[in-house]
Amino acid sequence: MEKTKVALFGAGFIANIHAESYARFVPGAELAAVYSHNSDKAEAFARRYGIPAWYDDMDRLLSEARVDVVDIGLPNYLHYGACIKAAAAGKHIIIEKPLALTLEEADEMIGECKKRGLKLMYAEELCFAPKYERVRALVEHGAVGKVYMLKQAEKHSGPHSPWFYKKETAGGGVMMDMGCHALAWFRWMTKNNPVKSVYASMKTVMHNTDCEDNTITIVEFENGVTAVAEDSWARHGGMDDRIEVYGDKGVSYADLFRGNSALTYSIDGYDYASEKAGSSKGWTFTVFEEAFNQGYPQELKHFISCVREDTTPLVTGEDGRAVLELLYAAYASAKSGARVSLPFTAKVKYPIELFLR
């Protein structure tokens, strides 16, 4: 079977991760073209990864390059326009978080892809990260009993590109950048259970930005699960990314960047902890299948498989929209100091305006 040809939109940090993932872990895909508004950057990127064609004109790429999938890794404010153009050209779409800046943009993006029978795939890598997926499997098999609380934290000292710090280009600060991961993972762990309310606290601690750089968000689900997200651009000492799952019969902790196992406590025990570990009751170190740690190659391999086999992706544009709605509610809550219920209907140019106004 001929390989699925992919065009990368973007030649920055995330595009490098995607290109490396395709090259090493996705044998069914072939990078056929790359776009960057900077021609020199596009050419350098193409030469680095052996991509045969590079463009500084998005429209020309879509008309000339023979590709099946467009993988969008551009700044947030460019997601909508790139997606609409790719859909009009009949391309399946993989799009990095957040899906869009507004719910109206998200609805149009989803609608355009549906109208043309195209797959819109939302690249939330935490739904594919091996260590976190191992924890989810434990939960599915009852290792911690009935889950009543989830926690996810992602913290570091700030993004690598200036556009992240401007509301016009990012739509918001650390909540848009990293809080979206937590919200997507909470929905993933609760099987998209309806959200009862969202409460958030936000502040700017250390960056020169018109957005927030430190947030705490509490999401209450209809099934009784409480989820807590901690996100910060004000944490020194490198990346911190971890999850906690609490059930009535145990707990499980996992750190994405430290150690090679998830620390789990189970009253009843579960299927397998690690070689020679004996019983899985009590505290155990749960091993996971080693792969590129954050889930990027797994998600891209899955998305390409969906295109090749015409199957429904695990994470869709609708999931991206649901996360965006939760982001809206978080910003509104941080402003009002009260819980915010869904659905959320306020219209704004940038989500952070709900906090600033």
Q: Explain this structure to me?
A:
This protein is an alpha/beta fold. The protein has two domains: 143 residues, Rossmann fold (3-Layer(aba) Sandwich); 178 residues, Dihydrodipicolinate Reductase, domain 2. Helix content is 34%, strand content 25%. It is built from eleven helices and 14 strands. Strands 8-9-10-7-11-12-13-14 form an eight-stranded mixed beta sheet. Helix 1 packs across helix 9, helix 4 runs parallel beside helix 5 and helix 8 crosses helix 10. It is globular, with a radius of gyration of 20 Å. The chain starts with a strand and ends with a helix.
Short description:
This protein has 357 residues and is of the alpha/beta class. The chain is 34% helix and 25% strand.
Question: What is the element layout, followed by pairings?
Answer:
Layout: E1 4-9, H1 13-25, E2 29-35, H2 39-49, E3 53-55, H3 58-64, E4 69-72, H4 79-88, E5 92-96, H5 103-115, E6 120-123, H6 130-140, E7 147-155, H7 167-170, H8 174-189, E8 195-203, E9 214-221, E10 226-232, E11 240-247, E12 250-255, E13 261-266, E14 282-287, H9 296-309, H10 317-336, H11 353-356
Parallel strand pairs: 1-2, 1-4, 2-3, 4-5, 5-6, 7-10
Antiparallel strand pairs: 7-11, 8-9, 9-10, 11-12, 12-13, 13-14
